[in-house]
Each structure stands twice: as structure tokens, then as C-alpha cells.
Amino acid sequence: MCYSYLLDTNGDDGIERGFRMKWDVYNEHCPTRVVLDRIADKWTVLIVGALEDRTKRFGELRREIGGVSQKMLTQTLRGLERDGIVARTVYATVPPKVEYSLTDLGRTLVRILEAIRDWSENNIEDVLKARTEYDAGTRS
To answer: What are the Cα distances from residue 46, in Å, to 24, 62, 78, 118, 131?
Structure first.
């Protein structure tokens, strides 16, 4: 069981500001691991990036995110919607029109995940070199 702790958030001035929960992502039973699993997923990183600037339809996302299957995109979008990161809006038209956008909570991830994408693009040569050396047994 992951325990949360109430922290007294009184300031040095002695004014009571209330309590907040403290979770421990390093505890194997802590529910924060579910969130970590969600945001560390490559499809999440790419979907959040694709929705950063504007609302998009499913087909737009699928075309923009190379290599994602319809099933994986659907599963990831559903998980992101469930976690409050993405909003799904259905319009009563024929055929039905469905759009996806980031929620306010989802927007808090934009810069964090952008940094991960940038790091990946800026360091891929070093990673590929390290893999080649490792696989050849000549690590330095």
C-alpha cells in the first residue's frame, strides 16, 4: 500500500496554509506510478506534442504521428482522456465529428514532454553510437 502523508504547509510566518498530500513515486504500490507510466509512453509524448497548438481530429493525429496504428492511437487517446490530459468533443453530425484537444492539465505537460522530444532528437547520434559499441562489445 502506498501511503500518503499530510504535510503542514505553515510558512515561517506561522500562518496556516493547510495541508497537501505527499505521494512517493518510488514506492511500488503508489498510484503515481500509473501517471508516470502514462506520461512516459512514446505515444503520449507525440500526441501531446501534436495537440500543443490546436485541436485536431483523429485522422489528423494519425497522419501527423507516423507509425501509430489506429488501435494504439485510440487506446492512448482514451487513456489520456481518462486521466484528464485530453478532452474529446463529439459533434452530432453525419458522419459524427470528433475532436481532441489538451485540457489545462494536459497543457502542463507540453514543455516537459517537449524537452524529452528535443533531447531525443539532439542526442540520437550518441545513443546509436553507444548501442553499436555495446553490441560489438567495445564499450569505452
So the answer is: 27, 11, 15, 12, 24
